[in-house]
Amino acid sequence: MRAGAPRGWRRLRRSDFATDPVTLAQALIGRRLVRLTPGGTRVSGVIVETEAYLGVRDAAAHSYRGRRTKRVEPMYGPPGTAYVYFTYGMHHCMNVVCGEVGEPVAVLLRALRPDEGAGLMRRRRWGGGAASAGRSWAALCSGPGRVCEALAIDTRLSGVDLTTHPRLFIERPGTIDKAPARLIRSPRIGVGYAGAWAGRLLRWRLAGEPSVSRGASGP
DNA sequence: CGGCCGATCAGCT
DNA sequence: GCTGATCGGCCGA
User: In A73-193, where do the E strands start and end?
Assistant: First the structure.
């Protein structure tokens, strides 16, 4: 098992996260979300779908109108903080806090293309053996709840610092970025309650990417 | 305290 | 496309 980052990939640092959520939502696509097991085995995927949550003015955001409860508190922390919440009685969703300290804005990680540790992801999602057979590789991390299940992310990780945490972080290739990937922009999923904010185009995904969330198919 | 509901998913029609 | 699962968080009384 390898505990360090593979040569050529660098962990994102504070300044990488200190930007507005619309910018970061696009910048995170193509970066790699990494989760290590207690033994140091790397489980990771390339981020292929994100959503921006714009804070106090955004009716779809948990921090709408400055709501500041124990659950949402990590959104008020430094850029690079993880905000993980539990929803629908059974799923977790992970966000990356950005902006400035005290400004509760974040980016939701909606889908990954599995990279390292796909076998472990498969066991966590579907168990071993027959139950896992025949399942689509593209469905492993194609949704925010699936990402958290495959990478063993839950509310115990809400509030951790992604720039220093030993077992949860985001990496980027150390080499110069190639030509920018083509992104498709659409409304956010599951926020129909948010009135005018429901229709805002605040979701991005990689064009032609099979590993995107269910609600994300189509143009 | 009680009640409502969700930044979802899987399975079925 | 539709619906049930399942429970912590949140708000109002």
Answer: 82-87, 91-97, 106-114, 168-173, 183-186
Tell which residue, A55, A44, A54, has the closest CA to residue A23.
A54
- What local confidence, expressed as pLDDT, does residue A177 receive? 66
Cβ within 8 Å of residue A182, ≥6 positions away? A206, A207, A208
Q: Are A106 and A79 in contact (CB under 8 A)?
A: no
Question: Residue A17 CA to C6 C1' — how many Å?
Answer: 34
| Contact between residue A200 and residue A106 where contact means Cβ atoms under 8 Å apart | no
Quote the CA–CA distance of A94 and A88 in Å, as a whole number. Answer: 14
Listed as ranges, the nucleotides of chain C within 7 A of a protein C-beta are 5-11
Asked if A73 contacts A62 with a C-beta cutoff of 8 angstroms, the reply is no
Name the amino acid, one letter, at A96.
V
Check if the beta carbon of residue A30 is closer than 8 Å to that of residue A46.
Answer: yes
| Position A17 pLDDT exceeds 80 | yes
Q: Which ranges of A77-206 would DSSP assign to H, the alpha helix?
A: 118-126, 144-150
Token pair in block for residue A137 = 């590789």
Return the SS3 of A175.
Answer: coil
**pLDDT in the model for residue A129:** 73
pLDDT tens-digit series, residues A124-154:
999 877 777 778 899 999 999 999 999 999 9
Nucleic strand B interface residues, CB < 7 Å: A 51, 53, 60-63, 75, 83, 87-91, 93, 95, 106, 108, 125, 139, 143-147, 188-191, 193, 213-215
